[in-house]
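From the thread on structure requests for the teaching lab: each student submitted one protein with a one-line request. Submission from student K.M.:

"Model Oxidative stress defense protein from Photobacterium kishitanii, tokens only."
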Amino acid sequence: MNKKCLAMMVLGASAFVSTAAMAADIPFPHLETTGRGEIVVKPDMAVFSVSVVETKKNAVDAKLAVDQAVTKFIERLQAAGVNKKDINSANIALSAQYNYPKDHKPELVGFRANRNVEVTVHQLTKLNSYLDDALGDGINQINNIELKVADTEKYQQQARQKAIENAKQVAASLAQGFGNKIDGVWQIDYNTDGLPMPYMRTNTYMVGSAPQSAIDQSYTDNNIVIKDSVNVIFKLAEK
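Reply posted by the TA:
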């Protein structure tokens, strides 16, 4: 990675404007760096969202149809070992459907019910079987699949330590290049922007379209990048 992207140095005056302290004049030789670090990890869990949409002549029948599909799906998930707390299915939307003939008043043709189910999967190898169960239980839409990592804080700390080491290495290199050396830290400005970016799957597989092992691997082969950064003002040795 280009060092220009990793660090910024200003001698004599602060270049950071994120805080009033860093924008203030500093009455001694110093330099400023931005250290960056990142960790690449394999996902080990996922959250997926599915929904069932039904249109019926009346609102009661529409609601009943989606409730039945969701109930069957939840029962199958729990039978497969999914904890109830990892299933969120409370929301439902009902809307009247109209036909709009030309030069006539709108005509009520039925009611559409839409109910979503969000499932947290802690065993990624079971993800595809849960999706297959959803399609077999009357769920007619897979909205998204979000791949995640369970122990986020551990990897966040690793990325943070890499950012700190990067800031120190860049500062030492810059100081040496100008015939000087680092003489301690004056100020640290830390605002994390490194929360892991979940990997969103937008494609799904039809049941039986590929071997189960190949489908499972298509999820676990993806990576999640966790980043962190730190701004540091270092003091330079007095000459």
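TA comment: Residues 1-23, 202-215 have pLDDT under 50 and may be disordered. The longest strand covers residues 107-121.
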